[in-house]
Structures are given as structure tokens and as C-alpha cells.
Amino acid sequence: MALAKTLSVTLNGVAAQLVEVEANIGAGLPGTHIVGLASAAVNQARDRIKIAAQNSKLTWPKTKVMVSLLPSDVPKTGSHFDAAIAVAILSATHPDARVRASLANTMVLGEIGFDGRLRAVPGILPAVLAASAAGVETVIIPEGNAHEALLCPGIDVFTATSITHIIDWTYGRAELAHITPDQPPGPPHTNRHLDMNQVAGQHEAKFAAEVAAAGGHNLLLIGPRGSGKSMIAERIPTLLPPLTQAEQVESTVVHSIAGTTTDHVVTTAPYIAPHHSISAAALLGGGSGTPKPGAVSLAHNGVLFLDEVSEIPAKILDSLRIPMENGQVRIHRAHRTFTFPARFQLVMAANPCRCAAETPEACTCPATVRAKYLTNLSGPLRDRIDIFSHTHTKGPLVTGGATCEPSRRIAERVAQARARARWRWQQAGYGEITTAALDPCVLRREFPADEAGMAMLASYLMMGSITQRGVDRVLKLAWTLADLTGDSTPTLDHIAQALDLRGEDLL
Questions:
Q1: CA-CA distance, 76 to 69, in Å (whole number)?
Q2: CA-wise closest residue to 287 among 257, 246, 317
Q3: DSSP character for 336?
Q4: Which CATH number fits domain 2-179: 1.10.3720.10, 3.20.20.150, 3.30.230.10, 1.20.1340.10?
Q5: In terms of pTM, does the model score above 0.85?
Q6: Is the link from the previous residue into 71 a cis peptide, with omega within 30 of 0?
Q7: What is the CATH number of domain 439-507?
Q8: CA end-to-end span of the chain, whole Å?
């Protein structure tokens, strides 16, 4: 009899839980058995790794093999268990107990093909982070996941190309490539060709985008087809500052779990633009089996753009309210709860009516149809939109001789405004937070506008032209406008401009 152990993980939302993989070779009929609440994908590993071992000229046990995944009461899923199970079984055949014991504090991750090659898998970054927190000494991952591990200093991470490569390293016959945090994370995956100077005219909407970027505010663009709504929205990430180290880790973890990235680190603000036919599960996360992060989580620390918002059912749009307030999504299953981050900036676009006419006078829609248009945007959701802006198709012809302000210059103003806000909220003890994410009670109590500005808000509230939540939104907008102009306190002009930006009469 021989026993070998190694480590793997199972994913629970954006967190990873360590799993101990035990392989025991003993007397009995030949066969491999896996116990410990393994999913179908994990159970199928026994056939994959046996064929891979045979094709790689590795000795496979000809007796009974038992594999135990501990803790036994936690569900295990994912093809990344392939490597850990294979290493545990093959190492158990080694006569030297010291070789087998050396793997007990080593995590091995990766999917194995029939040819023995180690393939990239989702969820490497949260796995390595969990290993580091638990004091695991060594982690072995596929070469295709190397860039993710660069965000995890303080732990020895190695890459391997095949199961043979790992076994040879285990037996002391080969070396693995060592990943060091000072290595470059690879080129950022971003649309470098996008620039705000490609948008002709639309000064009002571009200013609204600048204010939204400076404070992290939600934005709704309304205008006829062909007026540049999608163009402006797509270029908002070019106005945002690069992600901090902590934000890079947060965003890369989500994308790693979703399987949208295995070969690079998310260094710039994500831009997620799902189709208007998106389901609630695709938007918020979920699905059968182990839940996956949805569009709101993939847009974490970035922009979620919903085009043709009039075509999205009201029930799905209203489901955005909780993540917009809480900055996270909680998905409940019978025995487990999965939590995904969802701190995003919402940008929506819609036509003014079904015929998308430039003006109400040119509209050919029946009065009842026009009146019901955009009624899927409920009052509570509208209250959570800070800025309403109009785009136009009519205007002067912009030729090649005309110059529009590039994203780089706008981004500089945005960065300065964010720096002012960050310093102010840090000094007040609220940490690194955008103005839009600040607790509204704090503004009224500690950071109101000047007397004239607050008097204007009070009058609008008394007339019923604005809700209590609307007051908070206007105050946040006013502070962002003050940060853009370099003023220390929002004035009456800032309040008036903020009320104008919340021009809900556009609806």
C-alpha cells in the first residue's frame, strides 16, 4: 500500500477553498475511484489522466486506486482537479516516502489532455491567493495561466507544460519555470484605437460622459439612431484612470473565474456591453451547477453599457438596483451562497421613441406608444441614474480640418478631479471611494453645498420636483462638478448645473 497527498481548490464565488487530494494504492481489482462529492467533470478525470499517463509513457498502477477529496462534504467541480489527482496517484507509486511527503504542501492545478499536456483553466488567481493565505509553500500551474499568478507575491509559483514535466520535477529529474512578481504582466488588453476625438460634435453628451467618469456616476444617453450614443459609451473607459493594484486583482479574479481571461491581467477599466436580449442569470450571474459571474460582475471596476435599454424587460432592469446599491451580487443555493463583486458604472442608451425621431414634432409614433416608451425604466431605477443627456443627429458638418478634444486630455481632468475627491474622502475617514459611491447621509451631514445651493435643493424638494434620493444624487453631482473646476465647495451654480444634468424631462 502507498499513500500520496497534494492540494487543489474548489471555487465558491470569488473565493477559493483548499481541497486535500489523497491517493491510496492498495490491494483490489484494478480501477480508479473518486470520493468526496466530486462533480461529473471531476469523476471523468480518472479516465483522462489514465490515458494521458499511458500516452506519456508513465507507469499507471495496476491495482485498486482510491482518491479522496477533502473536506468530503464540500462539492468539488472543475477540470483543474486533473493535475492534482494525476500527481497524487503517480507519486504514490514512488518507493521513497520522502518524495510522497514533499507534495503534501504543494498545490497542483490544470487540465490534462490525452497527450499529457497541461492546459490553462479558469480560476487560477483566486486559487493562488487562497494558497498564499493558507501558507502553501508551492503552487504549480499551466504555462497559459502564468500572467495571473504575477499578482500573487509572497508564494513560489511554478509553471509546467505537461504531466510528465511535473512528475519529473517531483522525482528530481527536471526543473520548473519560476514566476516572479517583478515580471511584466503582459500587454494590457484594451481598445487603444478608441478615442473621444472620434465623436463628431455632441459636446453636451461628451461633457456628461466626462462628469460621469470623474465621479463614477450612472448615465443615460437618449437620442435618435446614428447620433453617437454607443460611440460615446464605448469610449468612457478611455477617460478612466488605470486600475490600482487591488482593483487589478479584484477584476482579474472575476474574469479568471468566468474564464474570459487566462493569459493576461486586467489593468484597465473593463467595458461590458451585453445584448439587450440578456437574461437575468447572464446579467446578475448564476446558471446551472456552480454559479458563474454575470455581466454586472465582469464590469466590476469598469463600465456596464446597456444599449437599446427600451427593449430590456422592466423586471431585468429592476434587478440592477440591489447590486448598484450594495456593490455585490449574492446568489443563493440550497446549501451555499455565492458572492460576486459588482461595483460598476452603469451607462445606458435609448432612442427617444420607437421611430427614433430627432424631435417630438417629427415623431410618427401614436401618442399612446410614445407615452409608454421607456416605461420599463421604473421610478426607483431612474432615481439611481445621476445624469440624463441628449444626443443629436443635426448639427454642423465636422470635417477633417476640425479638431475634437482627445480622450487623453479629458482623462487628465478626470484624474485631477478624482484625486481631489479621493484626498477629501480619505481625510474625512471614508477611504478610497468615488463620489458616486459615498454614503449619501455623509454629504448632507458633513459636506453640503453652500447656503444658496442647499436652499435651491430644498425648494425643488418642497415642489415635488425631486425625491430625497434625487437630492443626494444632485449633491454628489455638484461635488464632482466642483472637483472638475477645482472649487472647495459646491456653489449655487454647481447645484443648478447638476439639476440640469439630471434633466429627466428628456424622458
A1: 8
A2: 257
A3: -
A4: 3.30.230.10
A5: yes
A6: yes
A7: 1.10.8
A8: 75
Residue type, 169: W
Amino acid present at 187: P
CA 87 vs CA 74, 165, 387: distances in Å: 22, 11, 56
**So where are the chain's domains?**
2-179, 196-433, 439-507
Q: Kindly indicate whether the domain formed by 196-433 is annotated with CATH number 3.30.70.1150.
A: no
Would you say 32 and 143 are in contact if contact means Cβ atoms under 8 Å apart?
A: no
Q: What distance in Å separates the CA atoms of residue 241 and residue 412, rounded to the nearest whole number?
A: 9
DSSP-assigned states of every residue in 194-216: --GGGS-S-HHHHHHHHHHHHHT
Residue 27 burial (C-beta neighbours within 10 Å; 0-12, 13-18, 19+):
exposed
Q: Tell me, what DSSP letter sits at residue 73? A: T
461: nearest Cα among 435, 499, 500: 499
Average pLDDT per block of 10 residues along the chain, 507 residues long = 90 92 92 93 92 94 94 92 95 80 91 96 94 94 89 89 94 88 55 82 92 96 90 95 92 91 83 95 87 95 95 94 92 86 96 82 80 85 91 69 81 96 92 87 89 93 87 94 95 94 64
